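Give me C-alpha cells for this 287-residue protein.
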Amino acid sequence: MQSNLLQQRISLVCDYINQHLDDELTVSLLSDVAALSKFHFHRVFVAFMGVNVGKYILLARLKRASFRLAFERDIKIIDIALEAKFDSAEAFSRAFKRTFEQSPSQFRQAANWPSWYDVFNFSPQNLGVQTMQVDIINFEQTQIAFLEHKGSAKLIFESAGKFIAWRQNSGLSPINTSRTFGMPNGDPEAMAEDAFRFKLCGSVNTEVPDNGFGVESGVIPQMRCAKVRHLGSHDNMEQTIRWLYQNWLADSGELPNAHCCFFEYHNFVHQVDECDLITDIYLPLQN
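Here you go.
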C-alpha cells in the first residue's frame, strides 16, 4: 500500500537525519531523500511523526547531546553545545531545559530518564473522529490572473486588497462571476517569513495587460486532485489540511505530485459571516 511507502520514505528521512547530524539539513535536501515535493514533504512528515522536521532535527541533536552529558563527562558543555549546532552554551542550555525540564548541568548530575524517554515518543496529533467527503477529481487547466504576496502570512489581507482593487478596476476577473483561488508555496509555519509566497488568483479569459497593481497572467495546470470542502473560518483550515494528509492520504493509496495544495474560495469574509465561508482544498495527486 502507498501508506506503507510513505511511512518507509519518512523512516528513511529520519535515518538520514540521525546519520548526518553534523551536516546542514535543509528541507530541500530532506524532501529529495523522501522523494517528495518540498511543498508536501513537511505535511507528510508531520502526519507520520507528529512534529515538524525542524523540531525532529533539534530533538535528534539534543538526544545525542544528552548522551554526551550523561556518559562523556570529560567533554565541556560548550563543546557539546557547538556540536549540537548552537552558537553559545546559553542558547543550548535554554533549549535543553525547555525540552527536558533540566539544565545540562542538572542532567549531567542526575538525568531524569523517564521524562527524557517521553520527549521522544513521537506520534501524530489525535484529530478525533472526523468524517469528510474527499473526491478525486480532474482539475481542468484554468487561465488566471494572479498577484503574488511575498513575506509574512499575517499581511496577506494587504495584498488581497490590492488584488480586489485590480479586479474591480480592470473588469477582467469579476469577483461574483469568476473563480477565486489561493496558492501558497507551502506551510507558512514551516518556513522563514521572507520565504513565504501566496498567489491570489482569479480566473480570466484573456491575457492580463500591464498594470500598476503588479497583477500577472498565469495558468493552473490540469491535474488529478483530491478535493475536500472546508466549512467555516479560514483560521481553522489547517485542521482540515492536516486531516487530509494524516487521515486520508496515509490510507488512500495515493501519492502527492510536485504541485502544492491550493484553495478555491466560494465566498468571502466581506460577504458572509465567517461561519458561513465555503472553501475547497485541492491536494494534487500523481497520475
